[in-house]
Amino acid sequence: MNKESKDKQKRIEEEEVESQEWLDSLDYVLDVGGVERAAKLIKKLQIHAQKRGVRLRFTANTPYINTIPVEKQPPYPGDPQIEWNIRSLIRWNAMAMVVRANRLEEGIGGHISTFASAAALYEVAFNHFLRGRNESHEGDIVYFQGHASPGIYARAYLEGRLTIESLQNFRRDLQQEGGLTSYPHPWLMPNFWQFPTVSMGLSPIMAIYQARFNRYLEDRGLKKPSDAKVWTFLGDGETDEPETLGAITLASRENLDNLIFVVNCNLQRLDGPVRGNGKIIQELESIFRGAGWNVIKVIWGSNWDPLLSKDKDGILVKRMTEALDGDYQKYSVASGEYIRNHFFGTDPRLQDMVKNLSDTELQKLRRGGHDPEKIYPAYKAAVENIGSPTVILAKTIKGYGLGEAGEGRNITHQQKKLNEEELKLFKKRFDIPISDEDISRAPFYKPPDDSQEIKYLKERRHELGGYLPKREVICDPIKAPPEKLFEEFYKGSGKREVATTMAIVRMLAKLLKDKNIGKLIVPIVPDEARTFGMEALFRQVGIYSHVGQLYEPVDAETLLYYKEAIDGQILEEGITEAGSMSSFIAAGTAYATHGINTIPFFIYYSMFGFQRIGDLIWAAGDMRCKGFMVGGTAGRTTLAGEGLQHQDGHSHLLAYPIPNLKAYDPAFAYEIAVIIQEGIRRMYVEQEDLFYYITVMNETYKQPPMPQGVKEGILKGMYKFRDSQNKEAKLHAQLFGSGTILNEVLKAQEVLGDKYGVAADVWSVTSYKELYRDGLEKERWNMLHPSEIKRVPYITECVKDAPGVFVAASDYVMVLPDSISQWLPRPLVSLGTDGFGRSASRKALRDFFEVDWRYIILAVLASLTWEKKIEPEIVEKAILDLDINPSKANPMIS
Ligand SMILES: Cc1ncc(C[n+]2csc(CCOP(=O)(O)OP(=O)(O)O)c2C)c(N)n1
Ligand SMILES: [Mg+2]
Q: For ligand 1, which residues put their CB under 6 angstroms from it?
């Protein structure tokens, strides 16, 4: 050995001694000062090292083992055997529900493997954690993973809450006696499900904002402080949805220790592995830890503990961390021999570690998410954690217990049928007391009421405050705000030019002051309050912040300073329409969740509503959510300079499909007042399950006083606003206008009367959707009752005797007026804003989209020629006079 290598060898030996000395010192600190002192010391060391130039690579990961070490596990409080029996029965019935449904109706679908992997995760929660709502406790809020619904039904069956008949009708909602919905749908099962969760990604974001909203209610004194939790069960594949992870920093920023995510990491999604070449648990750990969450990993079952305790030099942990999810999926279906050779075979020391275990024992090494002994400590730690939200990352096997029929297989998500042999194996594995003769029918099984299983299960739920899930509306109607609150808007704005946005903000300010319902109003804005002129509200009611305002605001000197307060009323969500909508949903369903009639007003850029967060709006409908969505700076030609990605000319079309949503495009302040007054009455006094969409615009004009007797028409969708002044005219027209385009229509009316001898009546159409739905309803009734007196659509009734041609103009796509044309006595010409927006002045835009007064005149004259009332030459001349370019590009395709 030369000198150089001798020195090197010496240094290696010194380093070993040095390392050991450091570890011994740390052990001493741990023994004397405990873990907290040790943590402080390490932190200090890190800072010192950094100052001296040591650069540590950032990693938010911990080793691939359980977060809670075995010696820190509390004893299991339940009876493991009875709970295993109960869990097995639920597994069986959940599986049978899907198998039977698919025998009855080929292709009806349903999922076996999701619940199969999550059964223990749910059952430990049901037996020991989830609290029901009753007089003494408000209960926990639980978002169940949609695809696990058969398991939730199967439990409710054992609890005696669902009948065997309803189980038979899984996925057959239209059976006479009702069915069990495929997934959680409060609309279809309003006494059972609270939250629709199956459009993946929505439940995590809704849960985060729900947890925050619970705090908001407490901080504002609307609800008693409580230790209730919001639990969300979701899939690992589901975490790929941007909504799932998109709001997690809100939860940590707001210290939402009332929030618990349980991610069932079965390593698979629908098509295959979630991260075959990586590790989803480690990936999620670093994301959630980085975001400030309390992360608890439940990876290995109890029978790994002896192996881990033997792992003094960390080779097993190293191997666990190194193996990929793709490998683990393979181990879940492989033989013990394969596991021995492949997993433990990489190092002779590992092989040695398992030499006394048989292949069968190796195969039975369990994952943490199937082991109540491991799940319980995690849940307990989550519930007791203070100051941050918790995520539990539980490793499981998809299709657990299905064996050859799907366990761990890539096809398992789609498995809906089990053959006789597979059913027998399932039955054997979970010891279900069904005879071999009966097995092929896949019968449901429920032990007698006095069996220890049923008694135990009921007793546990009783202890925890009652059954879950359950949706129960216990809420008194509100006292409607007085008529006089709205009177100012009925009078008009006189000479003052006011935009409808300003009008609605003023209405909101007045509602906030109302002594009965003021405190129930929840204004929600995604960083857009100034756009809508709402900044006065900052000061009036404050912006909600759980910690109040810890800094002196830069504008503290001003009257309308940015005031944050613990009891602030405005939810200023920042730039997140999805988050704001989730708050809207929490507030709009508080009547059911908490028995509190909060009335949300979500005010946002209309363009970023329906098309961006349409799925959340659909979920809101399913949830019977209430409140007002207010689409601001709406209208493709009214919002002038913002251009293509801002100008909304179609949200009203996207509002059509939502069955319980009323959508209005009002022109005047008094129309808005009527709509809001009626909305509050219907939703919160009559307690109808509706919600409202109102678009408002930023063009200022004089708001006229409300004509007599138009309230009903405003709500039904249209009313005559102004008769033609030209009583002598031989030519006639009926003009429909909406939003600010009504002003263009009014101008066209004048010019038509003065210059073209056309007497035109002007109708304000506040809602094509209302007119459309009314027309459909009447038509349907007529179809089904051929011998009875025909019912007449409201729109037909309005215009049946109205003379002349029909022209409609709005700031929205033409299909809106077209949707009601079938109920008019003569053809309708629709003008609208189909096509991509542009940055330009309102005047230029209305020319470009052909919706200004000139095009309305053109449409009237053209229609009159088609009706053979005037010669085409008159139209030719008008085109010249009105300075219309016939060869201009078609906005629809430019
Ligand atoms: C938004 C959305 N996209 C797609 C689907 C269809 N889908 C249903 S389940 C599923 C896979 C779920 O995987 P994971 O979240 O891991 O749940 P697991 O069943 O494995 O527990 C997919 C793609 C859906 N329900 N929602
Ligand atoms: Mg999965």
A: 114, 147, 198-201, 235-238, 264, 266, 268-270, 274, 398, 413
